[in-house]
Structures are given as C-alpha cells and as structure tokens.
Amino acid sequence: xxxxxxxxxxxxxxxxxxxxxxxxxxxxxxxxxxxxxxxxxxxxxxxxxxxxxxxxxxxxxxxxxxxxxxxxxxxxxxxxxxxxxxxxxxxxxxxxxxxxxxxxxxxxxxxxxxxxxxxxxxxxxxxxxxxxxxxxxxxxxxxxxxxxxxxxxxxxxxxxxxxxxxxxxxxxxxxxxxxxxxxxxxxxxxxxxxxxxxxxxxxxxxxxxxxxxxxxxxxxxxxxxxxxxxxxxxxxxxxxxxxxxxxxxxxxxxxxxxxxxxxxxxxxxxx
Length: 271
What we know:
With 271 residues, the protein is of the alpha+beta class. The chain is built from eight helices and six strands; from the N terminus they run ααααββαααββαββ. Helix 1 packs antiparallel against helix 5, helix 1 packs across helix 6 and helix 2 crosses helix 4.
C-alpha cells in the first residue's frame, strides 16, 4: 500500500466521524444521528446563515453546546464561520452556514477507499488505517483491570463519533449512531476498519481483552462487538438442546407440564 493512502483514508474517516458526537444512548435505542449531525442537517437544509442563538432555539440545545459543536464542524470543513448582520452598536455577531459541498467528506472517503483497495488487500488496509486513526485519539492510560480497559474502549468510540455502551458483564459493546452508515453497503471494509480500531485500542490497554467478533447491524443502526477476556470463564455452560448431558442419574429429569389427571372416585364399601 502506498505510504500516503492509509493516512488519506484515516483523515477521510476522521472528517466524517466529526458528524457524530458520541453522545451516550442506552443500548437498544436506535439513535441514528447525534445532535452535531442534526445541527449540520439544519444548516444544509435551509442554506442560510444562522446565529448561535437561532440554532440553540431551533435545536433545543444550550448555546454553549451549540458553540462547541460548531467549533468541531468548522474545523472539519463542514461549516464556515462568517460575520453576521449588525444589530445596533458594537461588533456584529458571528454567523454560521454549511459549506457549499455537503457531500464532500463522503465522496472523499469513497474515493480514497476505492483507490486504496486497488493497491492493497483489504485486511492490510483495515489494520494499517486503524493504526493511523488510533494515533489521532487522545492516549488512554494503561488500564488497571479488564473492566477499565473496556470502559476506555467505549470512550474511544465516543471520541470518533459513535454512541457506545458496554454490557453489564463488560463482555460486549453495543455501538450505534454510525456516522458512516450510508457508505457501509458500498464499502463494507469501513466496518472492518472500525473493528480493527477497537482491537487496537484494547491492545494498548495492557489487559487481555480482545474483539472476538463484530456483529454488524444486529438491529437497524446498532452493531455489537463481542469480547473475550480470560477473567470471565463460566463454571459450566448449559445447552438447552442437550439438557440430558448435564443431568446425573440422581438428578430429577425435567418433565414437560401436562394437564392434571382426575383421580378416580374411591371404591364404595359395598363393592
């Protein structure tokens, strides 16, 4: 793979990742977009200038939250900051509008993936791109436990635009609000890159937690990363289809419930 291509793929992924804000959403609730993507959609739909106050009123978000999201969108090139119309004395307030080509980040990612796959095999592209992407994340401290390693991985998924929540046993992570959802059918390698990114983050934790598999679209908008960890070994596993193998001769057998049998009337003394 050419040295610059993996970096180009990573940067294109990061540009789209900024559209997701990683807000926490309970697992099972199909959140399709974050508030950052919602703000951008508003700007793109109306194609006019908005002040922070207007966006806050229209979105229901606090003005400080809107300002923080806009800073990210401006830095990623999705939104431009302009001078607003003057209102009385003083400096005119800032205004914001969507950039001319809203499709640019998606088209760029599609282009660089197609180009990269022409010169590299998919596993190599996924692994090396994930390594580059991981380097852009804020370093996580070495985890003191497997649970902490999973928590750090969830934080990293939030940082790249997903919602994520670990299961109670922390042996799986439910991932939603995928900013790349509209591209994964055409470029399924995107899901492989996400899987490699999660594996890279877990590997850096210092704990023996690994991604066993990534279940894509378990439900619409939701994926599930299944994890393996050596500190969770069941005492035994029951297979509902083979109960008999686990029952000793002295263990009562499970009997299907049936209708009670009516007792026969007692015999008459004269009979």
